[in-house]
Amino acid sequence: MPLTTVHPQFIIKRDMDLCIQCGVCTRQCSYDAQKIDPEDGRVSSDPRTCVGCQRCVTLCPTGALVVTERELHGRSHPNWSLQVQRAIHRQAESGGMLLTGMGTDKNYRIYWDNLVLNASQVTNPSIDPLREPMELRTFLGAKPERVEFDDEGNPVSQAGPLLTLDTPIMFSAMSYGSISFNACYSLARAAKNAGTYFNTGEGGLHRDLYEYADHAIVQVASGRFGVTPQYLDAAAAVEIKIGQGAKPGIGGHLPGEKVSAEISATRMIPEGSDAISPAPHHDIYSIEDLKQLIYALKEATNYSKPVSVKIAAVNYVVPIAVGAVRAGADIVAMDGTRGGSGATPTVIRDNVGIPIEFALAAVDSRLRQEGIRHQASLVVAGGFRNSADIAKAIALGADAVYIGTSALIALGCHMCQSCYTGKCTWGICTQDPYLTKRLNPEIGTRSLTNLLRAWSLEIKEMLGGMGMNSIDSLRGNREMLRGIGLTTEELEILEVAPVGR
Amino acid sequence: MKRVYAKEEVCIGCRLCEIYCIFQHSGHHTLVKAFLDQENLPEPAVRVEEDGAMSFALQCRHCDDAPCVAACIAGAMTRDPHTGAIKHDEERCVGCWSCVMVCPFGAIRMDNEKGKVGSKCDLCEGKGIPACVAHCPNEALIYE
Amino acid sequence: MDMHRLPPFKIHAACGTLGILDRTRAAVPAEDIVRGMANMRERGNGLGAGYVGYGIYPEHADDYCLHMMGLDDGARERLRSYLQTVCNIRHDEPIQTRPTPTIHDEPILWRWFVQPREDKLAGRDPEDYLVNVVMTINRDVEGCYIASSGKNMGIFKGVGYPEPIAEYYRLEEYNAHCWIAHTRFPTNTGGWWGGAHPFGLLQWSIVHNGELSSYGVNKRYVASFGYECTLFTDSEVISYMLDLLCRRHRLTIEQAALAMAPPEWEEVDRVTDPARKRMLTIMRQTYPGALLNGPFAVIAGHDGGMVGLSDRLKLRPLVAAEKGARGYIASEEAAIWAAGGQPEKSWPVVAGQPVRFDLYEAKEAAA
Q1: Which of A47, A447, A476, B126 could form a disulfide with A397 if both were Cys (CB 3.0 to 4.6 A apart)?
Q2: Does residue B135 belong to the interface with chain A, where contact is any CB pair within 8 Å?
Q3: Which one has a higher pLDDT value, A410 or C14?
């Protein structure tokens, strides 16, 4: 390896008392950080290429390995941290934009951790979810403002086409191409098991997944990859992808080496060619253009399924989201700045967009002020880590959430943020057949189904504790939240009282 | 009878099945000790066959019509009347390699030093789920 | 947004309730309901009680009667000058009271009989207009609070136990065919007379025993239709909800009950009649914000009668009874016996299913 100013990011520690030289680590590493020395046949490590994915650590049968982040060596400086220096060194060598994967690792405040939930004590009883039905059923789409009845007492009002969710958690858009078929397959099957939906992202729907299309939200993105009448017809809902929390304002790029025969067939692009999604939709330069696309898709699907518009949470998220509702969106999905991605320029990921907590609070309030909250459902995404984050989002006004990263973690992801390399050792974010085998879809389906079940149980427990037996009574119920350690202005935007009041 | 089946499509070639097979038949209490005792390290009865992305774990199928039993000239290969598993008795084995030649799966290995059959899957007899199955990280081996 | 009110504080209270309706419109003596309320002394703590009487202003039966509570001497004139800009004041007078031991800190009490000004109405629905007037007064006219705003009815409430409140307001002087009363056990607020119950909006009046866990949802739901909660009590939000559902959305009381205390999905899923299933489904899909969750037992008065409704788990007591033309709904059956002797029939109000007593004439009119 030639001299580089980019220092290794990880230290690989091998306890030689425990190492049995079995070589499992070398077979698992796709980054050549664990190798068998051809001279003596012994296992050796090279920290310079290690990405810290923890695959070798997990598979080592004797627990002989530790891979840790290197501490900053050299003189410390608050402005010129290791990360900052590293980025400069890398760019000085490559002359290119820095790419990364997953959501931002910049230390932005996670506002969920500054919000606490309520529970009943004395004045109203908590409800025991083991003894009473606890309702999580959620409908996404446009509902009538009121129900009108005819003279016989039959309702004449109709809701728009709705998605019915047994739990308010869906899988976020992750395309076939950015993730492996086995990952898509696991998401699809788990969505079906749990009575919820997965999202195809902009990668089309693989022919083997049409079986699960009634649980699929299919995306129409700026590259229009894989969009066919069959694709739209099969889906439960159609989502127009405008933006993504990890890369607001920019398009997508799936490198040609990932475009295998299967992906080429699914996306309808030549094998080996780069799949480039433009930054804007070139038929949407204004809100009225968005309306045209929304109605084009509604026409194409005979008004039989809800149309969602997914945007990144940015400064002007409120007028944009309200505009999307007025343009006919049945669902507005908002992705916050902590949202993930398979590949995004680091500078965009870490510096553009706003936290989902504020976007959600502001948009929900404005839609209510405008009296059009019933016209569309709000789905939020961007770094939901556990059921409490989800309960808090619902209390702020979300109808449901999309989870991406936490689903990938359930599939084995260890957040090494190297998705863009295509060498994911966990078989998730790669198309290399040697690696994709590592994600057994049976296990993947089970893990994801378990995660949704566990979180649903926890949400029910929290609901019961708050003295309610329906998620309907938590949705937008900001009385159930209190803020801790937040400024008056933050509380005002969130419309949440501080703890103690 | 219950057998071990390999699922090629999810075998990741890590060879943990081999390692745990060795440990299981080593007589040691810990994996590390088993491998420190290099002189007495048993041969694994399961082997991962690999070619690029294709891999799977191969071991005795315990065939219903077991050709190895018929071919054995020394009576070393027998079928356990209770479990149906094919067992190999090293004491009786004379190293004629007839079993190796007739095995349609190539699942029997020679130990040239001892001049006898070196390893042959015994389904971890009497010890519950076979070690290779229990420790496969990707459920590529199933016992049913 | 009105920042000085952020964050709104939810008011917690438990209660005793009793309603008596004579379906022939014969007068129900105020002594009856006071006796019934006295029987439930345990359910209050002297920090709030109140009554609503229907049919009490026959000489002004077609005018909206605003019961004002004023915090200072200037409140009445401030209200008058505002009212003159939006309504024709047909008549106004003090609400008669008598000095009563244990009743103190009383506000200025005044009643106004009004009609919306035609020139201001400009084709709008007069009731929508009046709702807006009431909201504006409660929010913007300093020191003024409108306790009730319906026709031929009025709310009398204050800080104290029910008996002295009745004595203070000289209730025996009114001829009401329906009385509904309330005694409170507030856990964190005392002194404010306007915070006592019943709560009223136009024809609706609400007394309530419970604690809505869904308050935050319900408050924001009615707010999106222009109802601004200023008291942060369940009764307030329930009255707005009833006004919204029954008047503006034109639902029947039974349909409104389906919105507020709907059957659980498990039950809806078991319904075999497709038309009914469709109706229940669209109601739940449309009215998640109207679902009142957590314990509640409500008695609601309106110009056609009286309704009782409890939450879908029946976490608070509510009993109904009949004796002749009289219908009763109360927190406790003992209060009904105390008010009117042994009823001919009594039954517990079933979870989520409304009990309604209608004026006979209202029934005939409907038929």
Answers
A1: A476
A2: yes
A3: A410
Residue B125's pLDDT is what?
Answer: 82
Closest CA to C297 of C322, C276, C273, C315: C315
**A377-381/A198-199 β-pairing:** unpaired
Q: What is the CATH number of the domain that holds A23?
A: 3.30.70.20
Distance of CA C267 to CAs A194, C276, C280, Å?
Answer: 21, 12, 10
Residues on chain A touching B11 (C-beta within 8 angstroms): 437
Beta-carbon contacts of residue A182 (< 8 Å; ≥ 6 apart)? A427, A436, A437, A439, A440, A441, A444
Contact A58, A1 (CB under 8 A): no
Is chain A in touch with chain B: ≥3 Cβ pairs within 8 A? yes
Q: How much is the pLDDT for C11?
A: 61
ipTM field: 0.91
Check if C87 is active-site.
no
Is A482 part of any domain? no
Give the residues of chain A that fall short of pLDDT 50.
Answer: none
What pLDDT was estimated at residue C12? 62
Secondary structure of residue B60 in the 3-state scheme:
coil
Residues ≥6 apart with Cβ < 8 Å to A55: A28, A29, A414, A425, A426
DSSP A155: B
Contact A27 B31 (CB under 8 A): no
Nearest CA in chain A to C292: A473
Q: Please, which pLDDT band fits residue C331 given cuts at 50, 70 and 90?
A: very high
3-class SS at B113? Answer: coil
CATH number for position C120: 3.60.20.10
Checking if the pLDDT of C13 tops 70, the result is no
Per the CB < 8 Å rule, is B138 touching A440?
yes
- At A394, is the secondary structure helix, strand, or coil? helix
Is the pLDDT reported for residue C5 higher than 70? no
Mean pLDDT throughout C113-119? 95
State chain C's maximal CA–CA distance in angstroms: 63
Please determine, for residue C1, whether its predicted confidence score (pLDDT) is greater than 60: no
Amino acid at A12: I
Measured distance CA(A191)–CA(A173) in Å, rounded: 13
CB contact (8 A) between residue A496 and residue C289: no
d(CA C10, CA C217): 12
Number of domains observed in the structure of chain A: 2
Query: A-contacting residues of B 46-85, CB under 8 Å?
Result: 52-53, 55
Residue A395: per-residue pLDDT = 98
Q: Does C19 fall in a domain?
A: yes
Our count of domains for chain C comes to 1
Domain containing residue A438: 138-142+164-470
Mean pLDDT of C37-45: 91
